Amino acid sequence: LAEHAMFEEVAWLLLYGELPKQHELDEFLARLQSQRGLPAQLKAVLAQLPESAHPMDVLRTACSALGCLEPEHTAADQQRVTERLLAIFPSALAYWHHFARSGNRIDTESPEPTMAGHFLHLLHGVQPSVEHRLALDASFTLYAEHEFNASTFAARVTASTLSDMYSAITSGIGTLRGPLHGGANEQAMELIDRFTDPDQAEQGVLGALARKEKIMGFGHRVYRTRDPRSDVIKELSRRLAQASGDMRLFDVSERIEQVLRREKKLFPNLDFYAASAYRFLGIPTPLFTPLFVFARTAGWAAHVFEQRADNRLIRPTADYIGPPPRAFRPIAQRS
């Protein structure tokens, strides 16, 4: 899918069960493009958020605010709300990013038909190259869905209480914010940025391993030998590096991969090479995880649809491991 379909085709597949026909895709793209605008009240909320705010907090807040402005009245509204969130998240993030940094209130409309092209256009203020648009688009497909990960489970738990779509997506965003889930691509980039060449990277990673530091972007709770998504994003990163004429970031990344595989038999997951790919696209590191949200919203929503279709309240049992039962003692007798 990442190699042959645009992200919007994959989003349609997740939400409606089949890849779209041409007329369905055209209508879907048109609907999303028509819903990119921000309500004045949401712009006012975003303008109040400081530059120091984490961009994931910005998206979480934007989702909650939109839920107040355009509520989901019944489950019949779920498709409308989902499409609105898919359309508006890139606009909301770009609007806040520019306003917080420079006070510039950007126009959140663009002629770009795809989410990837639209976000790059708003971020950089110019039409993106085809290569850059396709690379970001493919990364969205890779991030769109991955069964019962932590954020998807959180979204389904929220949906199982019969809460609204905005609450379920907000739960997903809050869970994805954590560095053990979505934030790994940012920490991977921070690691890569420490080194100026592959040899320095090898020594640095060996030192980190000796100090028993955790290296983000490696290993996976589901995959045991390799993450197939990593193969795709690594090749995208390689092509972007070659097109830029500067292979340093890619070469450093590849050496880190080699060291982790040799020393710990660890393999890179999707987040590791996504970091350098996004850097080549000119995307600031703090915005990496919000890109995950843009894509995963389709997956979260599909899970909410499924949960609602045959709902049971998700309420795990717990094994008590605290102190044994004790008799109540009046406060005067407690020493």
Structure report:
The protein has helices spanning about 5-15, 20-35, 40-50, 55-70, 80-100, 115-125, 130-145, 150-160, 165-175, 185-190, 200-210, 230-245, 250-265, 270-280, 290-310. The protein is mostly helical and about 325 residues long. It has 2 domains: about 5-130 and about 150-180 and about 285-310, Citrate Synthase, domain 1 (Orthogonal Bundle); about 185-280, Cytochrome P450-Terp, domain 2 (Cytochrome p450-Terp, domain 2, Orthogonal Bundle), CATH 1.10.230.
Q: Can you lay out the helices and strands and say which pair or pack?
A:
Blueprint: H1 7-16, H2 22-34, H3 40-48, H4 55-69, H5 78-102, H6 115-124, H7 130-143, H8 150-160, H9 165-176, H10 184-192, H11 198-210, H12 228-244, H13 248-264, H14 270-280, H15 288-309
Helix pairs in contact: 1-15, 2-5, 3-4, 3-5, 4-5, 4-9, 5-6, 5-15, 6-7, 7-12, 7-14, 7-15, 8-9, 8-15, 9-15, 10-14, 11-13, 12-14
Keywords:
335 residues; mainly alpha; Citrate Synthase, domain 1; Cytochrome p450-Terp, domain 2; 2 domains; 15 helices
- The residue-averaged pLDDT reads 96
Q: Which sheet architecture does the biggest sheet show?
A: none
Span between termini:
66 Å
CATH architecture of the largest domain: Orthogonal Bundle
Shape by Cα distribution: globular
Please give the share of residues in helix: 55-70%
User: At the third CATH level, what is the topology name of the largest domain?
Assistant: Citrate Synthase, domain 1
- What fraction of residues sit in β-strands? under 5%
CATH class of the largest domain: Mainly Alpha
Helix and strand pattern: HHHHHHHHHHHHHHH
What's the CATH H-level homologous superfamily of the largest domain? Citrate Synthase, domain 1
Question: What is the alpha-carbon Rg in Å?
Answer: 22 Å
Given helix and strand content, the structural type is mainly alpha
The count of β-strands is 0
List low-confidence stretches.
Answer: none
Number of domains: 2
Enumerate how many helices there are, as a single number.
Answer: 15
